[in-house]
Each structure stands twice: as structure tokens, then as C-alpha cells.
Specification:
276 residues, Rossmann fold, 10 strands, binds adenosine-5'-diphosphate, binds magnesium ion
């Protein structure tokens, strides 16, 4: 049995009077694909923000690889091996695909500013290595042919792949994907599933927020369901799918006022939610 790579323990996040996360517990095992689902506004992205150091949780603790990461800065958490993509794509639109990935790779190359200014041989070599690594990552993610195209000219699906390539450039042990299939057509979604599996098979643990039930249930080893900031279900996809609380949260007759996403977990949901 694989050990725990990340533990989210009693994480609560309050924004003024709003409690976005309420005492959430999740453990992620090394080597698994873990799905995080829930209606719009459930707190999924907020949990990513608490894990990656964007927010310090109001209460609770996040552990990674045996140490506490709560309270660390985002760049320190990346350095420890946790990297993410964003629900709203964050690329440099006027840079090429290669340059967008190079930046992530480069963050780990600590050439001094002087080396860069004087074009030292060491700097030159590192730059070359960084470029090669970026091209490898583009190849790995199936978008090498767009290496010299501006990010903004890639299709939406390919931009999502580019974000993944860039995140992989930081050599994560845990990769967090925030709705990677959003905006993709069915063929792109199939390709994405293959890519996520390939990433996991290469030894990277994956935490996946995804609204497309077919994608998330097909990919995940285990799933947690958030609703109004609370973890209402947790377990294998087939168990979670049948859980009355989960069906209720998704179909809930509008009682909870959850805007948007209403596809039942058992369904062939291709619903996209744009969310916060
Ligand atoms: N920075 C913030 N300030 C205030 N409220 C926020 C902030 N971030 C998220 N929220 C609120 O927290 C709740 C959960 O949001 P979010 O985590 O984005 O949900 P999800 O990703 O599951 O759709 C929502 O009610 C949202 O409006
Ligand atoms: Mg979200």
C-alpha cells in the first residue's frame, strides 16, 4: 500500500463571514489520481489555493511528504514539488509555447543575474538545456509542433496542455489540475485523459478538479466530494457515484442554490462550469 504524499487535515477557510471550506480532511496517496468534485462554489479551487500557499487556511494543516507546508509561500511549495494549473488559463499570451514552458523550467535554474548579463558560458549552457527541456515537455504533452507559435494562437485545448507542460517543468511530485478539460471537445478530452494517465504512470501523483464526470470517474482512483465547503463523500468512484448525498448535492432541486453545474455524477456529464 502506497504511503500518504499529501494530507489535508481539518482545513477551514473563511473569507469574512463566508466559510468556503469547513474542516476538510483528505489524504492523497503516492502514485494515485485523486479526483475532487462538487458543485460550483463548493470550495474546490479554494482548497487548491490553501494547498499551494495562495491562501493560509483559517484553521487546519496541510502536510506534504512528511512535513507541514501550511504557511509556506507559493514558490517554496513549488520548490518542494507541488505544482498546479489554473481554472482560468494563465499563460503569457504573447510569448511562444516554448517560452511559456521555459519559464517554468528556468525557475529551477539558478543562474545569477550577472551570468545572464555577461552571457557567461554557464548561463549559455543552462539556457540551452532549459530550451531542450522545454521542447521535451512540449513533445511529452503532444504540442511540440506549436513550439514557436504564440500561446494565444493555440486552441483552447492546446493551451490547457501547455499549462500542464509548464507545470511539469518544475518537476512536481504532486500535480494539481484545476478543471483541465474545461472548454475541450470530446476528442480533446480523450487525449487529456491519456495525458493525465501517462503523467501518473511516470510517477507523478495527481489531484484533479474536474466537472466532466466521465473524465473524473474514469481517471480517478479515489474521489472526494465537496459541497458548500464540506466533504460530503469520499471513496472509490463507483461508491461515491451512488452516494445519495452526492446525488442530492448535484441534483438538489436547486435547494442549495448551487448555480450552474447540475449533471449527476452517474451521468455522462459534459457540462462545463466556468465557476470562480
Ligand atoms: N478570495 C475570495 N474572497 C472571498 N470569497 C471567495 C474567495 N475565493 C473564493 N471565495 C468564495 O468561496 C466559495 C468557494 O469558491 P471556489 O473555491 O472558487 O469554488 P469551486 O472551485 O468549487 O467552484 C465561493 O462562495 C466563492 O465565492
Ligand atoms: Mg473552481
Amino acid at each position: 500500500m502506497a504511503g500518504t504524499l499529501m494530507s489535508v487535515e481539518g482545513v477551514t477557510m473563511e473569507f469574512g463571514g463566508l466559510r468556503a471550506l469547513s474542516d476538510v480532511n483528505i489524504d492523497i496517496k503516492e502514485g494515485e489520481i485523486f479526483g475532487l468534485i462538487g458543485p460550483n462554489g463548493a470550495g474546490k479551487t479554494t482548497l487548491f489555493n490553501c494547498i499551494t500557499g495562495v491562501y493560509a487556511p483559517t484553521r487546519g494543516k496541510v502536510g506534504f511528504s512528511g512535513g507541514a507546508i501550511t504557511g509556506k509561500r507559493p514558490d517554496q511549495i513549488v520548490e518542494l514539488g507541488v505544482c498546479r494549473t489554473f481554472q482560468q488559463i494563465r499563460l503569457f499570451p504573447n510569448m511562444t509555447a516554448m517560452e511559456n514552458v521555459f519559464i517554468g523550467v528556468d525557475a529551477r535554474h539558478h543562474t545569477s543575474i550577472f551570468g545572464a548579463m555577461f552571457r557567461s558560458p554557464r548561463h549559455h549552457r543552462e539556457e540551452k538545456e532549459g530550451e531542450e527541456k522545454a521542447l521535451e515537455l512540449l513533445e511529452y504533452c503532444g504540442i511540440r509542433k506549436f513550439a514557436n507559435d504564440l500561446a494565444k494562437n493555440l486552441s483552447y485545448g492546446d493551451q490547457r496542455r501547455l499549462e500542464i507542460a509548464r507545470a511539469l517543468g518544475t518537476k512536481p511530485r504532486l500535480l494539481l489540475l484545476d478543471e483541465p478539460a474545461a472548454g475541450m471537445n470530446p476528442a480533446e478530452k480523450n487525449g487529456l485523459r491519456d495525458l493525465v494517465r501517462k503523467i501518473r504512470d511516470s510517477g507523478v501523483t495527481v489531484l484533479l478538479i474536474e466537472h466532466d464526470m466521465k473524465v473524473v470517474m474514469g481517471l480517478s482512483d479515489r474521489v472526494a466530494v465537496l459541497d458548500h465547503g464540506e466533504r460530503i463523500a469520499f471513496g472509490k468512484p463507483e461508491e461515491v457515484q451512488k452516494d445519495p448525498k452526492v446525488v442530492e448535492a448535484y441534483l438538489g432541486a436547486g435547494a442549495g442554490g448551487n448555480a450552474g453545474q447540475k449533471t449527476a455524477p452517474g451521468g455522462n456529464g459534459s457540462t462545463e462550469a466556468t465557476g470562480a
